[in-house]
Design goal:
By secondary structure, the chain is α+β, with helices and mostly antiparallel strands. The chain is 49% helix and 18% strand. α3 runs antiparallel to α4 and α6 runs antiparallel to α7. The longest helix has 43 residues.
């Protein structure tokens, strides 16, 4: 069974899309308790779930998300009944509190808060929530019901500073007229993390550049020099995009709060406001916006994301999708953005494409790692057998060079993908002597039983070539 956290996080999209497809209720949900805005809370997602027009629900999602509506409708179909029962029992809204997990506090994260009407049946509301997951514990905070995972520590609500509480309250005000509001308020730890990321991005760039230039001095063939120069150009594009992302996030971290309000339906709209320190910070963001949009655009045009950490690909794609389609303006000590209509659909498509690229790159990295492990097994076998490589891969299992060969030979890139072993004709010592370790292929990716021209190849020395190299 899925964990309560993962199940409830899956439930969140239902209430996001459900609430957003209807017009806002006349009365906003009750105010969140001040104690909810502790010093370790960094984000709040608040959803007004009072009204639901189930008949228009899926049609509205289809109109809003187009070709990407399928997965959303799966969530909606699975949890539509739970939402209806929640509202029928007197539930009015759900707030998800996200804590800074890097602080190491052993507590439920996130924590779910549910508001209810004065005449609500609290037992029935808890019953609906248990229907999503029966491994939950309940507490209360004022008139709100608190839900968290049983095997974690009790929720902690340590009052944040007055400025921090005020920042959250200001950022959540749009709930009065919008069914969905998300807000983010950074803390000192995250600002320090952003500075550390900036240092690592710079250091990595300098090291890769220096190493590549050193390799150019030893490159023998024109192909080698061309490959290194191509890698340098590709890395420069990735470096510029990562630097721009870091600078954008620095301004967000240094700001007071980021507030995002969403309304879907016939004319889907996202309205965002970044409350920064002063007009100069707002002007800096506007200047960075153009630089970042250009850098992200160049990166997205590349067919390879191999120079970008997998965890960053989706963030870069999402930022690119937003900046490419949002109408962003500075307004005093804040930056306001709006995405509506066709631009909203294009943004969703851009984010979906980013998710696909992130998952695709993750599978490529996993496949590459598996190829390297198999190659190490092959070279170890050769060292122990007079330099002769095995006739078949199965000999690696037989003589205990690899114990999980069958699993390693399952290519994570999906159906039809596999690997083909190419036994080197020369002994390992001869390949070393003749400087052929980096040019003698030993394992290739296949698709439907044939070597694929867009597949990776690994050489005896461990070098991997990719078609997008």
């Amino acid at each position: 069974m899925d964990s309560p956290r993962s199940v409830l996080l899956t439930l969140a999209p239902l209430w996001i899309f459900t609430a957003a497809l209807i017009r806002p209720a006349a009365a906003a949900p009750p105010a969140l308790p001040t104690d909810a805005f502790g010093r370790e809370v960094i984000g709040v997602l608040w959803i007004d779930a009072v009204q639901l027009d189930a008949a228009k629900l899926k049609a509205g999602v289809k109109a809003t998300f187009g070709a990407h509506a399928g997965l959303v409708n799966e969530w909606l179909g699975q949890y539509e009944r739970a939402h209806t029962l929640f509202v029928r029992a007197g539930g009015t809204s759900m707030a998800i509190l996200y804590y800074d997990g890097s602080l190491g506090r052993e507590s439920a994260n996130p924590i779910f808060l549910f508001s209810k009407s004065p005449n609500a049946n609290e037992a029935n509301i808890k019953g609906v929530i248990r229907g999503v997951s029966n491994d939950l514990a309940f507490d209360s905070l004022g008139d709100w019901i608190v839900a968290y995972q049983k095997d974690l520590a009790l929720p902690f609500f340590d009052r944040g500073s007055a400025l921090r509480v005020q920042s959250f309250q200001n950022a959540l005000r749009p709930i009065a007229t919008n069914p969905i509001v998300a807000t983010f308020v950074s803390n000192r730890r995250q600002r320090a993390g952003n500075a550390k990321d900036a240092h690592e991005i710079k250091a990595t760039h300098e090291k890769i550049t220096a190493d590549a230039k050193a390799r150019l001095g030893f490159a023998i063939t024109a192909d080698e020099r061309a490959r290194i120069n191509q890698m340098l150009a590709r890395h420069q594009v990735a470096h510029e995009a990562l630097t721009a992302l870091n600078q954008i996030e620095r301004i967000i971290h240094e700001g007071n709060a980021l507030s995002i309000a969403v309304t879907l339906g016939d004319k889907p709209t996202i309205s965002a406001e970044l409350m920064v320190q002063d007009r100069l910070a707002a002007a800096e963001f506007m200047k960075l916006k153009g630089t970042a949009a250009t850098a992200f655009g160049k990166l997205m045009q590349q067919k390879s994301m191999r120079d970008v950490p997998v965890r960053m690909i989706n963030r870069l794609a999402s930022q690119h999708a937003v900046l490419a389609h949002a109408d962003v303006q500075a307004a005093g000590p804040s930056v306001r953005g709006r995405i509506a209509g066709e631009s909203f659909s294009k943004m969703i498509a851009g984010i979906a494409k980013g998710i696909e690229r992130s998952l695709g790159e993750a599978r490529i990295v996993r496949s590459m790692n598996q190829m390297k492990i198999i190659t190490i097994g092959l070279t170890s076998y050769a060292r122990d057998n007079g330099g002769v490589f095995p006739a078949k891969l199965s000999e690696l299992n037989k003589f205990k060079y690899l114990n999980n060969l069958e699993k390693l030979m399952t290519n994570p890139r999906g159906d039809g993908w596999g690997y083909a072993y190419v036994k080197p004709r020369e002994k390992l010592s001869e390949l070393f002597k003749n400087n052929k370790l980096g040019t003698t292929a030993i394992l290739m990716e296949t698709r439907h039983g044939r070597v694929d021209p867009i597949g990776m190849v690994i050489y005896v020395g461990g070098r991997v070539s990719r078609p997008d190299q």
